[in-house]
Structure formats: structure tokens, C-alpha cells
Amino acid sequence: MAQSASRQRKTRANGVASRIAILDAAAHIAGERGYEGTSINAVSERSGLPASSIYWHFKNKDELIAAVIDRSYSDWIEALRRLADQDTTLSPVEMYSSGMRQSAEQLIQFPDFLRLGLMLTLERRPSEPTARQRFQATRVETLARLRRYLGRVFESLGEAEIEQLSVLTLAGSDGLFIAAESEGIDIADGFETLARAVMGAAVSFGWVHPNS
Amino acid sequence: MAQSASRQRKTRANGVASRIAILDAAAHIAGERGYEGTSINAVSERSGLPASSIYWHFKNKDELIAAVIDRSYSDWIEALRRLADQDTTLSPVEMYSSGMRQSAEQLIQFPDFLRLGLMLTLERRPSEPTARQRFQATRVETLARLRRYLGRVFESLGEAEIEQLSVLTLAGSDGLFIAAESEGIDIADGFETLARAVMGAAVSFGWVHPNS
DNA sequence: TTCTTACTGTAGTAATCACTACGGTAATGA
DNA sequence: TCATTACCGTAGTGATTACTACAGTAAGAA
After folding, report:
1. Do B36 and A34 touch (CB under 8 A)?
2. Which of residues 83-112 of B touch A (CB under 8 A)?
3. Could you give the CA distance from residue B171 to residue A191 in angstroms, rounded to a whole number?
């Protein structure tokens, strides 16, 4: 039919640009309206390309949204990595605070990814979209990342406590994002309190803060 | 046209039952598929009533979903109130812990309300649905409720700190709900850690735990 | 030049969407 | 008994949905 992206042949410049334009349009619309709310027609109009082009680049709507998730996540990870490379001289606790602050800023700048992801997570449709599975995969990875991170910060704690703190950090981050979207709270303040709360929980788990 | 629910006349028994059946069906479907995903046809099939009946009871889809939010919220509040009436002999801190546990149980038993509400919150459509505004109103009320509650538990803290803790509690609750839906974490454990974390943050704000 | 591949444009498909026009029916108040 | 009201059933409306068939065009390979 119309598959096989690029075999040996050199890619056409126009084609690559079109693919990006389609993904940009789809990411923006899906980030605002969710899976069902993203119509091919709307993506077509926003990208300036006909529906047939969208279906040439992507098998169907399901794979289009999945591709949006994939690209957004890799962009996200790369941005975080760039930020992390900057400060290597910090102590674990300082790293934790600055890491939280950076995540908050990241969320403010690119809200579409998490918004779409959370919408996909909440929806329960009979045939689960590929995009939802992809986002779930990014969550598992993020949680693993957090466990490693918190394991280094709260060295004396056991695995179960680290797990609890990781889950709470991710949950708090999601919740604060939603609060910022709806109640318009200051997300930077929220993340600061979250960091303080997680540290407080760690202390009550038996962790001793290095500065005391 | 077809408005004016009940003027002076006695309500017809069948009509009341139908209205409930429609709301039940709509609540279930909207709780799983969101605003766009809830089709009148699906509500019609699930409730066993034709579309014309739905449009007799509700002006349009927008008001139907709004009515779903209204009813779910009042059910929610009533259930919470019934629980709160049971234990009046507890200390504020005990009340807080037990309140958190009860909220967690409430979320497990009736997940449709919060799931729909969060989906509505995240969505950004050109013409904001009435249901979204209604849910936002419940959020404002919940936050006020939390402020009063935490103000009593952490008596020595100032308004700004209480505000931060309230926002964090709500955000943590939302986030844990999402985590339970997607990663399948134990929500009771999560709420216990959340309570511990909020108390930890309160301590770091200068609050002194009564049991120490 | 000619053939192949990569992509775009036009014009459709059947299905589903929210919503309505309207007649039928049964219970109620007078 | 009779008109009124409350609600249900049938059968549609035009718009929008995801998706496709297919011809056209332009670039690179031979």
C-alpha cells in the first residue's frame, strides 16, 4: 500500500519537512484536545498539507498520535539531559532541589506533552491506542529514573521507602501540573513545597539531612 | 420548544427514573471516554432510551455532561459528610490521617467522577464546556475545604504555608489517582506517604507535632 | 531520455456525529 | 369525558469523522 518510509534511496527534502510539519500540527492539536479531539482534517489544515499526505507518512491516526508521543518524549529527555550536564559539582540534595526546579520550568515551557499524555492515561477506550501504551512506557522509564535519582539523594533509606518517595514525586509533579493548568497556581512555588514535603517524608522515614 | 422541567404539575414517575438512567449511563461513559468520546447514541443504548428522550430531559450534550458533574459532586460530598460524621472524637492530626485514608477509599470506589473531571480540566477546546466550569467550581470549593481543614490541623502555621500545603495535598491526591489508574500503584500506601510528606513539610515550616 | 520512487492534490467513500420534527400514548386535573 | 401535559418511538437532518482510490508531478538513477 503506502508504507516503507525510506529504503535505500535518499530522502526527499520536502518529505522530511512535511513529516515534521504534520507532527508539529498534530502535537499542538492533540496537546489541547486529546485523542478524539484531534481530527485529521484539523491536522491537515494546520500543517497546510492534504489528508493524503498525512496518510502517506503515517499508517493511520493511531500511529500518528503515537509518533507524536515518541518525538515529544525524546525532545523532553534531550532537554533534561542538556540541563543536567550543566551542573555536576552539586551535592545530591542540591541536585535534587535544582532538578525539581528544572522539571517545573520544563513543564511550563512544553506543556503539550504531559497534557496529552495525562489525557491518554485517563481515557479508557475499548481498543487502547498505541499512543497510550507509548506514554505508559515513558512513565515506567521516568519512574526508574526517579528511583535511581532519589536512591542517590536519600542514601540511607531502603528500597520500599525510595519507591514510595519516587511515586509521590511523580504524582505530585502531575498534580501540580494540573493545578497550574486549572487553578493557575504558581508551579515553581508548588515544586518547592513538593521538594520540601518529600524531604520531610524522608526524614520521617529515618533519613538524616546532611546539613544538620 | 421542549424546556420547562416541571411547572406545578406532579412529576411523572417514569420520567424521574428515565432521567436517572440517562445520568447513570452518561456518567459511566463520560468517566471512561471523556467529553468528546461520549456520544448521545452510546448514552441512548446504555440507558435503553431513545435520543429524543435524552433531548427531552437535557437541552444538549453540554448540559447533560454538566448535569453529570453536578450530580456526581453532590453524591461525593454527601458520602464524605457521612464518613466525617462518624468520628468526632479524634484529634486534628488523627482526623487528618483518617480523612486522607477515607478520601483514598472514596477515589477507589467512585473513580468516574475524578477521571471525568481531570479530563475536562486538561482539555482545551475553543468553546469551553459548561461541565468544565462546573468541575472547576467544585475544585475551588474543595480547596477552600482543605484550607479550613489544614488550618485546624497545623494551627501554628501562617496562611501562606497553609495555602501551599492545601495545594500540595490536592495535587498529590490527583497525581496518586492517576498513578493508580496507570501504573497500578497501591493508592492507600500512596495516601499514607502523602500524609507523611505533608506533615514533614509542615514540620519544616516550623510546625511542632503534638506527639513529640 | 526513460523509468522508478516520493510525495501531493482532488474527490470521493461509508459511518458516525449532535440534534430535530413530529406523531403516538398514557396519566392527570378539571 | 376531555383537553393538557409528560414522555417515548420513528425517522430523519446536514455536518463531520477516518480513511481511500487514483491521477499528477517532480526529482534522481540508468
Report:
1. yes
2. none
3. 11
The whole-angstrom separation of Cα A113 and Cα B65 is 26
C-beta of residue A169 within 8 angstroms of C-beta of residue A103: no
pTM of the model: 0.91
Partner B contacted by A46 (CB < 8 A)? no
pLDDT tens digits along A36-92:
999 999 999 999 999 999 999 999 999 999 999 999 999 999 988 887 777 677 787
When scoring B135, B139, B196, B212 by the number of chain A Cβ atoms within 10 A, the one with the most, hence best to mutate, is B196
Q: Does A119 touch chain B (CB under 8 A)?
A: yes
DSSP A20-58: HHHHHHHHHHHHHHHHHH--HHHHHHHHT--HHHHHHHS
Q: Give the pLDDT confidence score for residue A8 in this predicted structure.
A: 33
Nearest-Cα residue of chain A relative to residue B204: A200
Residue B7 approaches strand C within 7 Å at CB: no
Mutate to test the interface with A, among B112, B193, B203, B204 (most CBs of A within 10 A): B193
User: What is the mean pLDDT for each group of 10 consecutive residues in chain B (212 residues)?
Assistant: 32 76 97 96 96 96 97 92 76 83 88 96 92 96 94 94 98 97 92 96 91 68
DSSP letters of chain A?
A: ----S-SSSPPPHHHHHHHHHHHHHHHHHHHHHHHHH--HHHHHHHHT--HHHHHHHSSSHHHHHHHHHHHHHHHHHHHHHHHHHH--SS-HHHHHHHHHHHHHHHHHH-HHHHHHHHHHHH---SS--HHHHHHHHHHHHHHHHHHHHHHHHTTTS-HHHHHHHHHHHHHHHHHHHHHHHHT---HHHHHHHHHHHHHHHHHHTT---TT-
Task: Using DSSP, state whether B210 is helix, strand or coil.
Answer: coil
